Amino acid sequence: MAQALVRFLASQYVERDGVEQRFFVGCWGIFGHGNVAGIGEALFESPDLLPYHMARNEQSMVHTAVGYARHKDRLQTFACTSSIGPGATNMLTGAALATVNRLPVLLLPGDVFASRVPDPVLQQLEVPSRGDVTVNDAFQSVSRYWDRIARPEQLIPAALAAMRVLVSPADTGAVTLALPQDVQAEAYDYPDEFLAKRVWHVERRPPDPTALARAVDAIRAAKRPLIVAGGGAIYGCASDALRRFVDETGIPVAETQAGKGSLPYDHPSALGAIGVTGTSAANRVAKDADLVIGIGTRWSDFTTASKSAFQDRDVRFVNVNVAELDVHKQGAIAVTGDARVTLEALAGIGYRVDGAYRDMCARLAREWDAEVTRLYTLGHSPLPAQSEVIGALNEFSGPTDVVVCAAGSMPGELHKLWRTRDRKQYHVEYGYSCMGYEIAGALGVKLSDPAREVYSLVGDGSYLMLSEAIVTSIQERAKLVVVLVDNHGFASIGALSRSLGTDGFGTQFRESSPGAPTPSGAPIRARGLDSERDPAPYLPIDLAANAASLGAHVIRADGISEFRDALAAAKEVERTVVIHVEVDRYVSVPSYESWWEVPVAATSEAGAVGDARKSYEKAKQKQRRYL
Ligand SMILES: Cc1ncc(C[n+]2csc(CCOP(=O)(O)OP(=O)(O)O)c2C)c(N)n1
Ligand SMILES: [Mg+2]
Fold it and tell me: How sure is the predictor about 293, in pLDDT bands with cuts at 50, 70 and 90?
């Protein structure tokens, strides 16, 4: 059965806009008893069908596959094979990330024996009340399609269903086919038609004319329209159509994390990031907009500033989206369709915003750009601010170089500050904002587009969580430039905690053991207390040495000028480089007229929590339902 599966996967092609390509470019894996003899034998026997890539962590290999798929606009991906038990469940986080971000990946966890003869097999979960449950059932909630192949012939409908979902722009995400280890090794006479080349045509679904007409009426009636471009605008390659539409109509454009890069940052209609991590320009325009046109966005709470971004009493929404799940959000006029085709259909509607509105948007965009320059050049000392690291990298990197990030304080700062010049330049995974995606995901980007320099921006916390992909990048000869921004802990959550009255509790990498004396002899007052008065020293972590031990070329940069030199030096190195730079954890980019709902304790002994609760209750009054 596994041999047939490998042949089937190698025979699947996608076609969009006349370009045909293989859908699966290879298979990542880590072997154990649950897959070594089945899928392992099939991959060993036919290396040309589906090239095998060895990973070191199952979560990480799914991130790599997903990073690849995102950079390829969802038209190509990898399969991922794991053993049973821990190897399988290690992929759960990767599966959730793929599904939340609507990115295709095929997961093939090994499973317990369908025969049940050797039960309980090594690593088998036993459920007293159910004979048919294994740990792989946990994938059901994080997969867009899930099946278990208990008989070899079941592979035929399951593999076809898997493909239907993986190539669907509306339904894609993680697909899981759990493969009982005995069934993998069984023989079955699969029909030739099942294994023959099959081309999946990815449609560009046009909008329904009556739905489009409703949208046009709403646009024509708008005085202060705003477009919010999301991931669908990028995956649908809608940038040119978007540019033509806004050149014609003068409608300003704000971008979500996944949609950043839809327009170059200096386009006259570009207002930059929107929402909690938005720019002053976009957030001010959002506040008064009377019509908001979402193009391929799923309206996360960050995009809507927890439903407080759009304050006009009568604001209405138009949603252009391939997914019905998204198209009806915000009580919108729903236009189900491909972003590019729909924008093209909106051309020539004879609408233009008035000059005063356009001038105001242009002024706000100029003011924002000046703020970016200020934050790029703060000159903070003795340690630089993170915004200066972002600025130096932005100015150094070429327009098609890619920046990859996922969690911590950097995604928000990048969303605000990164001057994007190419639609595939900005790769911040913020649907799941998963610590540990940064290096593994960057590896996927590099493999998908080796000509681009790929910069992985990773915090020290994320680095500690998952950095073994450095080893895999060296194995794959896929050079990454990892910018390791060290601030001795979870600066983002520390700042959030301070704003909620809990003093950064538990967010610094310091020695802590309540009551025990520190090496300096002073007692520690509280576990993980984040305060400059805290006597506990930072833990003696040398992440640069760690990176060197994994085989990376390491450069330690002390300050921004050395960081610039390091970037130049890194360009000349052929293998993965890690640039270690320390920043001041207390200097962060402020938020611009936005809010995010994080619930604050209604009762607390700590006075600061009470104050935070009052602010929280006040801010909540601005929340809208947009029904
Ligand atoms: C897997 C995972 N666990 C927890 C979180 C919650 N979280 C978000 S940011 C963060 C700290 C990240 O630390 P670091 O990478 O050093 O970045 P910094 O906040 O210092 O910029 C945590 C714990 C998360 N996003 N992902
Ligand atoms: Mg940190």
Answer: very high
